[in-house]
TrEMBL record:
Single GO biological process annotation from the record: phosphorelay signal transduction system
Keywords linked to the UniProt accession: Cytoplasm, DNA-binding, Phosphoprotein, Transcription, Transcription regulation, Two-component regulatory system
Positions of modified residues (4-aspartylphosphate): D56
GO molecular function: DNA-binding transcription factor activity; sequence-specific DNA binding
Classification via Gene3D superfamilies: 3.40.50.2300, Homeodomain-like (1.10.10.60)
InterPro entries xrefs: CdaR_GGDEF, CheY-like_superfamily, Homeodomain-like_sf, HptR, HTH_AraC, Sig_transdc_resp-reg_receiver, Tscrpt_reg_AraC-type_HTH
Main localization, broad class: cytoplasm
Organism: Halolactibacillus miurensis
Subcellular location: Cytoplasm
Descriptive protein name: DNA-binding response regulator
Length: 524
C-alpha cells in the first residue's frame, strides 16, 4: 500500500535534502506536496490528504507545533514527524503531548530519518489492518444477525438487525435461493467434496450477474445459497436468475436451480419470504428444461389445487386387480397431471401416494411369485429411495416401470425396451468388469451420447450409471456370499479400481459395508 507524504520547511535546501534522503521507492512512499510554513501546509494537506507529514518546528506565520494542533479537529489526521535545529526538551514534551510520532534534530541523519519513517509506516499500516479486521468482524456480525432472523423469524433475532446496515432496500425485496440439483450419484459425490474455492466461485458468479443491484449473498448452507435482492421486479428477477444458472453451468460441473419469493415490503416479512422461496425448491421436481421458479413470474399461488388421492388409489387398486396395465397407467398419469398444480407444502403427499402405490404393486409381485433381478430390486424399494427421485420424469418413469413389471407378461420383459437400450444393457452386462464409460458404450452400439442417455433414462426409469452401479453391486453381493474373496478383490472383479470408493457406494445403496453384508447374510 503506497502512502503519501507532504514535506514542510521554510528552508528550500531542507526540502531538497529530505527529497534526496528518503528512499521513496523502497519505502513505497509518494511525495504529494511541499510547503514553506504551517498556513501553506494546511492548504496542501486539505488538497492532498497525506498519510505522513514531515515538518519543521520553527517557521514563519505558523510553527510546526501549531500546525499539528490545528489538524487535531480536522476529519483527516496524518502522522507527523517533527524536525528541528533546537534540542530544547520543552519542544519534545509538547510534541509528545500532541501524539507526534517522532522528533529528529538537524542536521538530519539519513539513517535516523529512515528509521523514523519506517516506524511511522509500520504504525499506520498496523492501525489500518486492525481497523479493517474490526470492520470485517463487524460486517460478519451484522450478516450473522440478518441470517439468524432470515432462517428463524424469531423477534429476539430481529432486535439485532438494523435495515440501514445492509445494502438492501427492505421496502422492496425478495429472497432468491440457488439450489444444487443432483442428476446422478457422481454429482452427489462432487457436491459433497465441494472445495471452499468452488463455493466462493459460485458466490462471485452470482454477485457478478447481480452487479449494482442491492443484494446480500449468504454462505453455502444446506446445499444452497440464499440471497436477498432489492428493487427488482419478478420478471427482472426471472431474467437475472436464468443468467446466474446459465453462468454457473459454465464454471461448475454441478447442476443448479433458482427459486424466488414474492416481493415483500417490510423487514419483518423476511423469514416468510425465505420460507416461501424454500417451498419452491421442493417444487423443482416438476421442472423440465426451465431452471427457474418464481412467484409472480412462472408460479401462481392462486392456481394451486388440493390433491384428493383416495379415489385415485381405489381406481388404481381396481386396475391392478384386473391386471389392466393401460388403465393403471392412465390413473397414474392423472395423478401426476394433477400434482403439477398443488401447493409445494403438499408435495409430501405425492411421495406418500407413490409409496402406497409401490407397496400395493409389491404385494402383487409377491403374490405372482415372480423372481428375477428386476422384481428383486423393486421389492426392496423403500420410501427413502422414492424421495431421492427429485425429478418428476424420474418419479413418473419409476412408477411406470413398477406397473409394467407387475402387470405385463414377464416372459417377454426385454420387448419393452427399444433395440438401442437393449444393446446398451447387453454391453453393461458383458463388460461391467471393465472401466466402462458412456463414450465406450455409445461407440459400441453406434449412437450419440446425449440421445442414448435420454432414451435410456426414459425407458428404464433410471440413468445409465445408476443401472451400471446396481448391476455391479448385485454381482458383488453374490461374490460376497458365494466366495471367500476379499472385499478389495471383489471391488476389482466388478469394475471398481478404487476399493474405498466401492465400499462407499456399497454402503450408500445397502446401508452397510461389504464385510457387514457378508457377516449378516452368511449361512450359519
Amino acid at each position: 500500500m503506497t502512502l503519501s507524504v507532504v514535506l514542510v520547511d521554510d528552508e528550500a535546501l531542507t526540502i531538497q535534502l529530505l527529497t534526496h534522503l528518503i528512499n521513496w521507492q523502497s519505502l513505497d512512499l509518494t511525495l504529494v506536496g511541499t510547503a514553506s510554513n504551517g498556513v501553506e501546509a494546511l492548504e496542501v494537506m486539505e488538497e492532498t490528504k497525506p498519510d505522513i507529514v514531515i515538518t519543521d518546528i520553527n517557521m514563519p506565520k505558523q510553527s510546526g507545533l501549531d500546525l499539528i494542533k490545528q489538524t487535531k479537529t480536522a476529519s483527516h489526521q496524518p502522522a507527523f514527524i517533527l524536525i528541528s535545529a533546537y534540542s530544547d526538551f520543552r519542544y519534545v514534551q509538547e510534541a509528545m503531548k500532541l501524539d507526534c510520532h517522532d522528533y529528529i534534530l538537524k542536521p538530519i541523519d539519513e539513517h535516523e530519518l529512515a528509521q523514523a519513517i519506517t516506524h511511522v509506516i509500520e504504525k499506520i499500516l498496523g492501525e489500518r489492518q486492525i481497523e479493517t479486521m474490526i470492520e470485517q468482524h463487524d460486517q460478519e456480525l451484522k450478516r450473522l444477525y440478518l441470517k439468524n432472523y432470515l432462517f428463524s423469524g424469531q423477534p429476539i433475532d430481529l432486535l439485532a438487525v438494523r435495515a440501514e446496515d445492509y445494502p438492501v432496500d427492505f421496502r422492496h425485496y425478495l429472497v432468491l435461493i440457488i439450489k444444487l440439483q443432483y442428476q446422478s450419484m457422481e454429482e452427489f459425490n462432487k457436491a459433497g467434496h465441494m472445495s471452499q474455492d468452488h463455493k466462493q466461485k459460485v458466490e462471485r458468479t452470482m454477485s457478478g450477474v447481480l452487479g449494482d443491484t442491492g443484494h446480500v449473498i449468504f454462505d453455502y448452507h444446506q446445499e444452497a445459497w440464499v440471497c436477498l435482492i432489492s428493487q427488482v421486479s419478478p420478471s427482472e428477477m426471472g431474467h437475472l436468475a436464468k443468467l446466474i444458472v446459465q453462468q454457473l453451468q459454465e464454471v461448475s460441473p454441478l447442476s443448479f436451480h433458482a427459486c424466488f419469493s414474492h416481493v415483500y415490503h417490510t423487514l419483518t416479512d423476511l423469514n416468510q419470504a425465505y420460507e416461501e422461496a424454500k417451498l419452491l425448491t421442493r417444487y423443482t421436481m416438476y421442472l423440465d428444461t426451465d431452471t427457474v421458479l418464481g412467484f409472480s413470474y412462472n408460479m401462481d399461488s392462486k392456481a394451486f389445487k388440493e390433491l384428493n388421492t383416495e379415489s385415485l388409489l381405489k381406481e388404481l387398486h381396481d386396475s391392478i386387480k384386473q391386471k389392466s396395465f393401460q388403465q393403471a397407467k392412465k390413473v397414474l398419469d392423472d395423478l401426476f397431471a394433477v400434482s403439477k398444480h398443488i401447493n409445494p407444502e403438499a408435495l409430501e403427499t405425492i411421495y406418500e401416494t407413490c409409496y402406497q402405490i409401490t407397496t400395493l404393486i409389491q404385494s402383487t409381485l409377491v403374490a405372482q411369485d415372480i423372481e428375477n433381478d428386476e422384481t428383486t430390486r423393486l421389492l426392496k424399494t423403500s420410501y427413502e429411495e422414492i424421495k431421492q427421485l427429485t425429478d418428476l420424469k424420474q418419479l413418473q418413469a419409476f412408477m411406470h416401470q413398477l406397473l409394467y413389471v407387475a402387470l405385463y407378461d414377464h416372459d417377454h420383459q426385454d420387448a419393452r425396451y427399444s433395440r438401442l437400450v437393449q444393446d446398451g444393457i447387453r454391453v453393461i452386462k458383458t463388460k461391467y468388469q471393465e472401466n466402462l464409460n458412456l463414450e465406450t458404450i455409445c461407440d459400441e452400439i453406434a449412437v450419440s451420447k446425449n440421445y442414448f442417455s435420454y432414451l435410456f433414462k426414459r425407458e428404464v426409469g433410471m440413468n445409465l450409471w445408476q443401472y451400471l452401479t446396481e448391476y455391479r453391486l448385485k454381482k458383488a453381493k453374490r461374490l460376497l456370499l458365494e466366495s471367500e474373496l476379499k472385499s478389495y478383490e471383489i471391488a476389482f472383479q466388478v469394475g471398481y479400481d478404487n476399493p474405498s470408493y466401492f465400499s462407499m457406494v456399497f454402503k450408500k445403496y445397502e446401508g452397510m459395508t461389504p464385510n457387514q453384508y457378508r457377516q449378516n447374510n452368511v449361512i450359519k
